[in-house]
Amino acid sequence: MIEPIATLQENAIVLLVAFPIVAALVPIVLGLLSDRTGWIVAAIISLVQVALALTVFRQVQATGPFSYEVGGFAPPFGIELIADGVSAPLLVLIAVTTVGVVAYAHRIGPHGNEFYSELMLLMTGLSGVVATGDVFNLYVFLEITGLATYALVASGRSPEAALASLKYLLIGTIGASLYLFGVGYLYLATGTLNMADLSSSLPSVGYATPLVLTGFGLIVVGLSVKVALFPLHTWQPDAYAESPHAVSAYISALVSTAAAYALFRLLYAVFTVDFFAAVPFAQDMLVLLASVSVVVGAVLAVMQSDLKRMLAYSSVSQFGIVVAALAIANETAILGSLVHLVGHAVMKAGLFLAVGVLATSLGARTVEEYAGIGYRAPVTSGALAVLAFSLVGVPPAIGFAGKWTILLGAVEAGAWALTAVIVTSTLLTLAYFGRLVEKMYFTEPADAAESVATDGGVAPDVSFAMRAIVVLVAVTAVALGIVATDLIATFEPVVEVYFA
Q1: Phi/psi of residue 71, each to 5°?
Q2: Count of helix runs (H) and strand runs (E) in the chain
Q3: What per-residue string of b and e applies to 257-295 under the rule 16 or more CB within 10 Å gives b?
Q4: Is 50 exceeded by the pLDDT of residue 147?
């Protein structure tokens, strides 16, 4: 049982949610004096968030999981925040990614104060999704995340960006509504919204009752829209492709990641493995939905020429792998899915950041325009290649650790069809990234003048810090793979409880 706490140190978890939403107002107020103060505020707030997230993580490492009753009101009536071996590392991931994106955006933008207010609002929503222990508050935080993301996508200020934002708004609202309807069905069945209470109430209600089954279906479909599984993914390619580079990196790293984490939490902290045992049809359908997403997403990625769209469809495939592993419902596969969830966030953020650097400095946005780019921008191109092969699953990077653990879980479960799907997806991932790397290093540019290296800082819109961040993310992807066993050990106590 997770014990409630209330010391100053442990208040860090509520500050992680409350602090950025209050701070989001500061750039707007300071905007009355200057339109360039938002970056300074965001930099300070994101560093404070890192300190708070590390405090929560260390507390979990020292004393185990804990809960926080907001305002002193005990659940199921009060708001409960949960920190454990899965949520705490994700809170650190959100905070650190925010620091990196804020640093990256210093030169390339967007520069307006409203951008940084929206970014902090998004950080609030993401932290809330990860920390909440209540299914209705999860909806609230999903909505905060969605509203902030719609605005950030539109910050590209082009007609295409506005259209992508509107499309995301419409589809995202449908997904959130489906989730809320599902929560309503569960409340009608059990009379509670707290995750722990739902978990203990559902067996007595009956997993196979119409209310519970309908609630499960609506929640899974609603969150699948947020995760962007095929065929519910249609908002994602436009949103990623039309956003400013810093926004593409941030939302590709964290928005669908938070939704996938929410799906994990609801599947195993609310419905539990007993639900899948009682309703195997639900498990089979989830595996099927995820498997289709794995293959179709990878095939669509192969067909793309635009780099951002290729990476977007790649996410459709990779999140299919994560959800498929969750649906296998054994400890090994779930641990693999969590490792791949964290690894994908790091790798995809780095890939979008690298693509942003090369698009800004060299104007390269398509695979064809990457001809010979490995010699014109060797540092950024090298980091991009490392991240690409990491996502393929080449050891020792984190992409290998996650996929290998998922494959072991699939084999343990005897899920041979899914094993074949994941292997096929890996080959397709190698196909589209291999084509890109081949173009970068083994194809001559059409113009000989384009063979001049630019990583030294010729492009005025690209700073040394931007390139350094890309390299740091690539190094992190490899380093995380080397310490993947430690990451698994952090997740393991949480997952073991679900199978006790």
Answers
A1: 75, 5
A2: 21, 3
A3: bbbbbbbbbbbbbbbbbebbebbeebbeebbebbbbbbb
A4: yes
User: Tokens 């001809």 label which residue?
Assistant: 371
Q: To the nearest whole percent, how much of the chain has pLDDT over 70?
A: 95
**The 3-4 sheet, strands edge to edge:** 3-4, 66-69, 80-83
* Residues 131/65, Cβ–Cβ less than 8 Å: no
Angle between helices 280-302 and 307-328 (to 10 degrees): 160
Predicted confidence (pLDDT) per residue in 229-277, tens digit: 999 999 999 999 999 999 999 999 999 999 999 999 999 999 999 999 9
Residue 306: strand, helix, or coil: strand
What's the rounded Cα separation, in Å, for the pair 465 and 316? 30
Instruction: Cite the DSSP H helix spans in 329-463.
Output: 331-362, 373-376, 378-392, 398-412, 416-442
Structural contact between residues 439 and 367, judged by C-beta atoms closer than 8 angstroms: yes
**How far is residue 241's CA from residue 258's CA, in Å, rounded to a whole number?**
20
Model confidence at 124: pLDDT above 50: yes
The confidence score (pLDDT) of residue 447 equals: 65
Helix axes 245-265, 135-154, angle to 10 degrees: 170
pLDDT in tens, 365-400: 999 999 999 999 999 999 999 999 999 999 999 999
Hey, what are 321's tokens? 């792998």
Residue at token pair 């990451």: 487
